[in-house]
Design a protein that fits this description.
The chain is an alpha/beta fold. It has 18 helices and 13 strands. The chain has three domains: about 1-125 and about 275-290, no CATH class; about 130-270, no CATH class; about 295-495, 3-Layer(aba) Sandwich (Rossmann fold), CATH 3.40.50. It holds the Pfam family MutS_V.
Length: about 500
């Protein structure tokens, strides 16, 4: 076990180094189809590449519990969490990171499971205090302790002194066993689940417990009870024990006593483990990048930053850009040539907003954000099955966004990349202008990238752009945002660079 733990620690450290250096391909992440359906089909996942092999959700996932993993995903996607006990205070991640520089790392190591496969998630069973087994068998509950002692004693004496009625006694016990066998198997299933959880999360239980002595007793007793379940593998010994002394009932009685004594402690620690598990990916992000800073909330509904960058860019490729102050109803239009950084800038703001909303630090400084509802329309999808075109898909999404903005008390923040691509330029301009007007009325903060310079004429827009530079006759990009509208294009240059002839460039 110790060798397994050392190997697991080594694997974890190598993953941490890959996260730190941005070599995400070295990290074994999930395939898109391995995520829950609601996550892989979520607009944020699609538009921000959250579930790709090198997407944020997979790269920084350190969770080990099934519920912790689900909670982590929902927390980042700003979805509601059903169990209110798993909701978090905005300062929780910051408080964990403040304790000392290596506390986050040691906490993560307590969550390592030596025998776990990569990305494997484990259940941590909730202890249900409701006594469904004995509720149906109140008479048996009082009768079996007497009968369960009498039976083996009488059988032993009967074999020694040739007493009568031994077959009848075995028949009675057999009939009793048949009446409770199906329900007792469910109890054994619960015992095995609790025992497995206790064994698997033993280090974590003890580490997070305020009083370790009762916690160790709780783990020891349920583990011992779980060891008894090994007899279920062999049906014959299991049957014989129940014929002799109603063995299942004694174990179910022991489970009932364990629940009575330790059930509340188990459930409290279970919530603490799962909640911490769901926070650790964000804690680890802050631990790896101490230069990241925590955002401040804006009661006025403003969104701004002195600097920010996309969290998945390696350190060597990071270019920090400011985010001008955006108030409810504001529109930012970002123009620029191809590959200059427009869409990455939008994704940088969106990712920073999601991190801040999760209580995590942001790669940047002086990030201020409102209570928000985020929407993205960056990568539209058509559907052959439903007969839905790219254009109609976008229209439906925009209609849904506008409808949600009407009913939400939060500030809608929208990220739109080259919207309404599937129609002619005249209708596209009119439709986009009207959509932006409606969104302004809804007090939405809107970020829009476009190649259509006419759109930049919208009077209330804040105009910014990215551009390419000429270096030794070649295109070069500095990925720095600048005020105003872009005056350069590079589509023809890219075509010529790839060997596609442009015969009438002047036209």
């Amino acid at each position: 076990m110790q060798i397994q733990y050392v190997k697991k620690t080594q694997s974890f450290i190598l993953e941490e180094l890959s996260r730190l250096t941005g070599e995400f391909k070295k990290i074994k992440t999930r395939e898109v189809w391995e995520y829950p359906e609601f996550v892989r089909n979520h607009p944020l996942s699609i538009d921000l590449d959250l579930c790709t092999k090198q997407g944020f959700l997979g790269v920084y996932d350190t969770t080990i519990t099934e519920v912790g993993f689900q909670t982590y995903l929902k927390r980042f996607l700003q979805e509601s969490i059903e169990d209110t006990k798993l909701n978090f205070h905005p300062d929780e991640i910051q408080n964990i990171l403040k304790k000392n520089s290596y506390f986050a790392y040691h906490l993560l190591r307590k969550y390592l499971i030596p025998e776990a496969e990569t990305n494997e998630k484990f259940p941590l069973t909730y202890v249900n205090a409701e006594d469904s087994f004995w509720k149906k068998r109140r008479f048996l509950k009082g009768f079996f302790p007497i009968w369960g002692v009498f039976s083996p004693v009488y059988l032993s004496l009967g074999l020694l002194f040739d007493l009568p009625l031994l077959p009848l006694l075995l028949l009675i016990n057999g009939i009793l066993f048949v009446t409770y066998r199906n329900d007792s198997l469910k109890q054994w299933k619960e015992i095995k689940a609790l025992s497995s959880g206790a064994s698997r999360f033993q280090k974590t239980f003890v580490y997070l417990a305020k009083n370790r002595k009762p916690t160790k007793q709780m783990i020891g007793r349920i583990s011992s009870l779980g060891d008894s379940s090994e007899l279920l593998i062999s049906p014959l010994p299991h049957l014989i024990l129940n014929l002799i002394c109603l063995w299942d009932l004694w174990k179910i009685k022991s489970l009932e006593k364990w629940k009575s004594k330790f059930g509340n402690l188990w459930n409290d620690l279970r919530i603490k483990i799962i909640k911490t598990d769901s926070l650790l990916p964000f804690v680890n992000f802050g631990f790896l990048f101490p230069e990241a800073s925590f955002a401040g909330s804006s009661s006025a509904g403003n969104l701004s930053a002195k600097s920010l960058v996309h969290p998945l860019l390696p350190k060597s490729s990071r270019v920090f850009n400011p985010l001008t102050k955006m108030e409810p109803g504001d529109l930012m239009i970002v123009t620029g040539s191809n590959m200059s950084g427009k869409t990455t800038y939008l994704r940088s703001i969106a990712m920073s907003l999601l991190l801040a909303g999760s209580g995590a630090p942001v790669l940047g400084s002086e990030f201020e954000f409102p209570e928000f509802q985020i929407h993205t329309l960056i990568r539209s999808q058509d559907s052959m099955e439903d007969g839905v075109s790219f254009f109609y898909s976008e229209v439906r999404r925009l209609s849904s966004i506008i409808h949600n903005a009407e009913s939400s008390k939060k500030i809608p923040v929208l990220f739109l990349d080259e919207i309404l691509k599937g129609t002619n330029s005249k209708e596209r301009f009119i439709a986009t202008r009207e959509i932006l007007s409606v969104l302004r009325e809804k007090r939405a903060i809107v970020f829009l990238t476009t190649h259509d310079l006419k759109l930049a004429e919208v009077p209330w827009a804040k105009r910014f752009h990215f551009t390419e530079l000429e270096k030794d006759g070649q295109m070069d990009f500095d990925y720095q945002i600048r005020e105003g509208v872009s005056g350069s294009t590079n589509a023809l240059k890219i075509l010529k660079k790839e060997g596609i002839p442009i015969r009438n460039e002047e036209d």
